[in-house]
Specification:
Blueprint (H helix, E strand, L loop, with lengths): L12 H12 L5 H8 L3 H13 L19 E9 L7 H9 L4 E6 L6 E7 L2 H13 L4 E9 L10
């Protein structure tokens, strides 16, 4: 029996237009979305529901400015795990997700194993995070911290 997680949904041009509009503004009304893509509101609502059920749309969220919360400094920390700690990849990723400073965690193929994107108040908090959460972690072999000067997010739909 085929695993439904491995089946890629078939998206037509209308689906792609819906995704493009939602990636620009997830708060758009169904009526406005339907008008922009040229379909009836009831059809639009059904298509969006199907895209959610198929996990093409994974979530609707608000992107909050870290600086508005007093988190003036962002950094991306490259993390390499020790060779013997490769069995701990999932546990490491989950532990990073649990820290309030962490915005995103990327599991990589390449020289580094993870990129950890954090937002903090100042450089001291980055230092504390690296020392307490990474350098003290027996699974971590190496880290490299890069300060983010500017960040822009664009979804995969253009």
């Amino acid at each position: 029996m085929e695993n439904s997680k491995n089946i890629q949904p078939q998206l037509d041009g209308v689906d792609r237009e819906i995704l493009k509009e939602l990636s620009r503004n997830a708060r758009i009304s169904n009526a406005e979305l339907a008008a922009k893509v040229g379909i009836a509101p009831s059809t639009c609502l059904g298509r969006v529901k199907t895209l959610v059920e198929q996990r093409v749309i994974r979530s609707f969220s608000a992107e909050i400015s870290p600086a508005s919360l007093g988190l003036e400094l962002q950094a991306v920390i490259s993390v390499t795990l020790r060779a013997g700690a490769r069995a701990n990849l999932a546990a490491f990723m989950q532990s990073m997700r649990e820290h309030p400073q962490v915005i995103q965690v990327f599991f990589l193929g390449g020289a580094e194993d993870f990129l950890v994107h954090v937002a903090v108040r100042n450089s001291e908090e980055i230092r504390e995070f690296v020392l307490e959460q990474l350098s003290n972690n027996a699974s971590v072999a190496n880290t490299r911290t890069n300060i983010v000067f500017e960040h822009s997010h664009k979804g995969p739909i253009s």
